[in-house]
Design a protein that fits this description.
The chain is an all-alpha fold and 477 residues long. It has a single domain, classed as Ammonium transporter AmtB like domains (Ammonium transporter fold, Orthogonal Bundle), CATH 1.10.3430. Helices cover 58% and strands 0% of the residues.
Length: 477
């Protein structure tokens, strides 16, 4: 029998929250699976997509058992001051899915409205953010991480690193109480993924030499399809975080697309001006940097701010990737897809620009009749340096916390199993790990010609004149 919904519940807001979460989920599967599968060398297409598919599933189980409550639950009191606001009490949330969404979760500077949707909608919405973060991290270690090690690393990292960072900034933790803001994950997701991916790449070690110097994308049209899913899926990424289908949601979606288009064009123009080419890989990089940079700022900037941010997001990561990285110690780490630049640097740019371009007239509305509205006063709007300083402190904390924790988790895991595949398996690629060819007869040897225990690959990689230019998004091609 049909029963009327509770008085607090808004069908429209509930529907939008689930739709926004679904759009974010589509960024991972199939979005990033397709993007990675197209950008990597053809012998790694299946393994890259499998890393995405596994992480999405593993994080959901971890999230339900402990991750959500660590990030958004009642704080664990370990002592005075900061020690009482580091993370939430771990517990499963299966028994809370029917409760109303008015749990007073202290998001964003310690204040949060009564939700207009069930808590189950909040749990699912926050899950897809948790899931995409290690998937983005994977971009730094594609083409060499032991898949068994990845299977253990993902749930451990998600619970102990991602969820704690989420609590510090979104769950009412000490960074939120300090006054730092992160609209939709520029720090919690992208800086975390970029720094952790870079550290993981350094700890695990590089790809084979032949793969480092010659790593052409195997299907750029497929990569563009994945990139398109990522771009449009971002409407849910930033459009869902006001938690209501309202004015701020619409402004955040518009700002997201404006900044992304601007960053893409800026990167493209930089490629043409300094590298004399109009690169699809470069355009995808610029798009990602725009999406990442606007994420911590989407509902806090006006249109001019989004435009300026897009220019900075296309220019600064381009410089760090193509000029600074190759000429410093950063270039010695084999960051496969350049996540340090496209996520950590871009996320830092967006987070810091909140302290400069934040427009107090752009209020984060929590719904009609709500009193928990938040505004950010940037330096250019008379707010002084206070917000910029808070953003800088939060950035430093997230960078340090993720670098140290990722390093420790991997070092402990390495005691029990190798983090890097054997060189013999690295020569072969997908078939050595999964005993499958993604497209028989195209990506490798035809399956009918493969003996049950015989590996399939295209033969040894050649390193010649064509290998002098790196074809990875992380390179300077």
């Amino acid at each position: 029998m049909y029963a009327a919904h509770p008085a607090y519940l808004s069908p429209g807001d509930t529907a939008w929250q689930i739709m926004a979460a679904t759009l974010v989920g589509l960024q991972s599967i199939p979005g990033l699976a397709i993007l990675y599968g197209g950008l990597v060398k053809k012998k790694w297409a299946l393994n890259s997509a499998m890393m995405v598919l596994y992480a999405f599933s593993a994080v959901l189980i971890t999230w339900m058992l402990a991750g959500f409550s660590i990030g958004f639950g009642e704080p664990v009191h370990l002592g005075p001051g900061i020690l009482s606001n580091l993370f939430g009490m771990p517990r499963p949330v299966m028994d809370a899915l029917d409760s109303i969404g008015q749990a007073h979760v202290p998001l964003l500077q310690g204040s949060m409205p009564d939700f207009a949707f069930p808590q189950s909608a909040l749990v699912y919405f926050q899950f897809v953010f948790a899931a995409i973060t290690p998937i983005l991290l994977a971009g730094g270690i594609l083409g060499r991480m032991n898949f068994k090690a990845w299977m253990i690393f993902v749930p451990v990292w998600s619970a102990l690193v991602y969820s704690v960072g989420a609590f510090m900034l979104w769950g009412g933790g000490w960074l939120a109480q300090l006054g730092a803001v992160d609209y939709s994950g520029g720090y919690v997701i992208h800086v975390a993924a970029g720094i952790s991916g870079f550290v993981a790449a350094a700890v695990i070690g590089p790809r084979l030499y032949a793969d480092r110097v010659d790593f052409p994308p195997n299907n750029l049209i497929m990569a563009m399809a994945g990139a398109g899913l990522l771009w449009l899926g971002w409407n849910g990424f930033n459009g869902g975080d006001p938690y209501f289908a309202n004015q701020d949601m619409a402004a955040a979606v518009l700002n997201t697309n404006l900044a992304t288009a601007t960053a893409l064009l800026t990167w493209l123009f930089m490629d043409m001006a300094f590298l004399d080419r109009a690169s699809m890989v470069g355009a995808i990089n610029g798009m990602i940097c725009g999406l990442v940079a606007i994420t911590p700022a989407a509902g806090f900037l006006n249109g001019w701010g989004a435009l300026i941010l897009g220019i900075a997001a296309g220019m600064i990561p381009w410089i760090t990737m193509n000029k600074i990285g190759p000429r410093t110690w950063l270039g010695k780490v084999d960051d496969t897809l350049g996540v340090l630049h496209t996520h950590a640097v871009a996320g830092a740019v967006g987070g810091l620009l909140v302290g400069i371009l934040g427009d107090p007239r752009m209020v984060l509305y929590y719904g009609v009749g709500k009193t928990a509205d938040i505004s950010v006063d940037g330096l250019l709007y008379g707010g002084g340096f206070s917000q910029l300083w808070h953003q800088f402190v939060a950035l430093a904390v997230i960078v340090l916390f993720n670098a140290v924790m990722t390093f420790l988790i991997l070092r402990i895991l390495a005691i029990f199993m190798p983090l890097r595949m054997k060189d013999a398996d690295l020569e072969i690629g997908d078939y050595a790990i999964h005993k499958e060819d993604p497209i028989p007869g195209v990506m490798g040897a035809p399956m009918e010609n493969i003996a049950p225990n015989k590996p399939s690959w295209d033969g040894p990689d050649t390193v010649g004149a064509a290998a002098t230019t790196r074809h990875s998004p992380a390179g300077t091609d």
